[in-house]
Amino acid sequence: MRWTTRRHPFSAKHFINDVTPTTHAPFQFASSYKTYGIHQRPDNSVVCREWAPNLAQLSLAGDFNEWNTTQYPFERNEFGVWELTIPPDSAGECRISPGSDVRYFCVDGEGTLFDRISPWARYVTQGDRVYYNEVFVGPASEYEWNNPSLITRPPPRALYIYEAHVGISSPEPKIASYIEFADSVIPRIAELGYNTIQLMAVMEHAYYASFGYQVTSFFAASSRFGHPDTLKYLVDSAHSHGIRVLLDLVHSHASTNTKDGLNSFDGSDSHFFHGGAAGTHELWKSRLFDYTNPETLRFLLANLEYWITEFRFDGFRFDGVTSMLYHHHGIGHVFTGEYGGYYD
Questions:
Q1: How buried is residue 130: exposed, middle or buried, by Cβ count under 10 Å (0-12/13-18/19+)?
Q2: What residues in the chain have per-residue pLDDT under 70?
Q3: For the segment 49-77, what is each residue's pLDDT rounded down to a tens digit?
Q4: Is the separation of the CB atoms in 56 and 50 below 8 Å?
Q5: Is 272 exposed, middle or buried (0-12, 13-18, 19+ CB in 10 A)?
Q6: Residue 110 dihedral angles phi and psi, to the nearest 5°
């Protein structure tokens, strides 16, 4: 298998040999969501790992330590990866309780102090703030699946896709929940004969009016609609009706938010993204990923694995593919149907 453009030849062999030389296999590379971010281990310790080469200091603080920003500093290795282990307390209990708000406190090479949330955060909430905080989720989810995943089953001869947005699925003037969608909408979709749901606006987005296309937290199911486990309930419910669920995935760009987004996570212009003008979409005013960066590939591939493994999504609908494929991002370019125009 080989993908080629005039400027950037890229092959599966290149990915395996050059991009993942220390991870043994692309599958391990894609499982990085299990080791990056903030995690509680079986012994009740908390381990944290982040790639942030531009930082000079990094620490973790939150409700659990009264927002003491110096108590738990990270250590950096030679690859720009920061790590922290917080041992359990004297009683063997985890020092961070599930539901606690946590944030990173950072100092860049120029001495500038700022705060961020983990790019790998799995649950973020806004509360009465302007910005989102990461919420510590504790150990692995205890959701018990009632129906098997459909991803390994032979696909139907034709997909009849119902595109849906959980928040606007209620006839009432309110933001609907994952549970309401599962209990009230999915049975109606099944009755209409659809065999697939394409679910919009799942990945957390600070700007609700963006319909989910200005993502701030790529691993967090939007908390507007409920707890992440209730999204699993939604997918489980769809599977009980024999309906596959596709995630409307946004890997073409990201929100410019810094305090609760990916943008400038380590204080640099190019963390996960192209630097300078190449890193900003002219029309969308959002950040553009650098797909030649191995750490960007780690992040995005792990994101795919995460949604399939943890939430049992059956596939993806990729948004903004033209922007991903072409340097011109489709801006001012007309595709006439002439074959060569797609390879220009």
A1: exposed
A2: 1-27
A3: 999 999 999 999 999 999 999 999 999 99
A4: no
A5: buried
A6: -95, 5
Listed in sequence order, the residues at least 6 apart from 82 whose beta carbon sits closer than 8 Å to its beta carbon are 48, 49, 50, 51, 52, 55, 58, 74, 75, 76
**Partners of residue 196 on adjacent β-strands:** 161, 244
Handedness of CA 40, 132, 263, 27 (dihedral sign): positive
pLDDT in tens, 137-172: 988 778 999 998 898 888 899 999 999 999 999 999
Output the CA–CA distances (angstroms, integers) from residue 66 to 16, 86, 102, in the order listed.
44, 15, 10
- The conformation of residue 221, written as its DSSP 8-state character, comes to E
Local structure of residue 273 (DSSP, 8 states):
B
Establish how many alpha carbons lie within 13 A of residue 289's alpha carbon, considering only the half-sphere containing its beta carbon: 24
pLDDT of residue 22: 53
Residue 139 CB partners (closer than 8 Å, separation 6+): 40, 42, 98
Beta-bridge partner residues of 221: 203
Cα angle 328, 329, 332; round to 5: 65
Residues 6+ apart with CB under 8 A from 330: 322, 323
For 141, the token pair is 């989810």
Structure letter (DSSP) for residue 142:
-
